[in-house]
Amino acid sequence: MGNADRGGLDGRRALVTGGSKGSGRAVAERLRELGADVYVTARTMPDGYELPDRFIAADTSTVEGTALVASRIEEAGGVDILVHVVGGSSTPPGGFAKITDEQWMIELNLNFLGAVRLDRALVPSMVRAGHGVVLHFTSIQRQMPLHDSTLAYASAKAALRTYSKGLANELAPHGVRVNAMSPGGIETEAYERFVDRLAEGNGLSRAGAKESILESLGGVPLGRFARTEEIADLAAFLVSDQASAIVGAEYVIDGGTVPAI
Ligand SMILES: NC(=O)c1ccc[n+]([C@@H]2O[C@H](COP(=O)([O-])OP(=O)(O)OC[C@H]3O[C@@H](n4cnc5c(N)ncnc54)[C@H](OP(=O)(O)O)[C@@H]3O)[C@@H](O)[C@H]2O)c1
């Protein structure tokens, strides 16, 4: 089989969490282009979603939400590819002393335990089949945490990375590959709206607003954040047979933002 064919996903069934916006939407679209039958989950189905029978509306930060997703996927016959893109931070600014127990649990449930619960439900059928791929989205904040408002998020992503590595070691002998990818800033729709607000509020051009965001992070050597299609390219590679010997790895995609090894 040629290397191009080994990138194809014909006949594979996939689930992409957080697949309605930003990186997740780009990943779902790319896996479909490559031939996979892709289920998507998020809390709200976007208006006019083109494949409503492949959309599962659920809150994956809850036990009930992940159980609902798992039962829909089991009805469909399970998945060969499971991409956990969902994640984010809602902690208000103010530093460590302001993060309540409740807020810690919100971040842990969204960024870590949702993946743990879905893997526990869906990976056993991969093991029975003798093949499968799991991909966890972490963040460069797991190695470069920002402390003002995202410390709990960063810690949850660190837990996800450690869990991902242990899971990879356990599952590789059963033919199931587990990896992670760690984005820095991403040019999502939400980011573009933020740039517009910053530009308007500070009398800057859009390019000037983007420059000020990069500077606030200590600079990004590439000079810009990653595009969602670049995130999708890496995800598609990692879940394809082209990556068949890659196990337990975490691929950083950050334009050089993390300044050390
Ligand atoms: N954006 C960045 O700069 C950046 C940087 C480093 C790492 N990351 C990581 O990369 C991943 C993708 O980020 P992104 O910015 O591309 O995502 P995004 O544009 O914020 O989209 C988030 C997706 O997750 C869904 N979602 C949010 N909360 C959910 C919940 N409780 N249950 C189910 N679905 C939920 C959203 O749909 P609904 O709102 O309809 O639920 C949406 O589809 C995340 O893991 C993030 O932590 C992002």
TrEMBL record:
Signal peptide start and end residues: none
PROSITE patterns: ADH_SHORT
Annotated segments matching region Disordered: 1-21
Pfam families: adh_short_C2
Family in the record: Belongs to the short-chain dehydrogenases/reductases (SDR) family.
Name of the protein described by the UniProt record: SDR family oxidoreductase
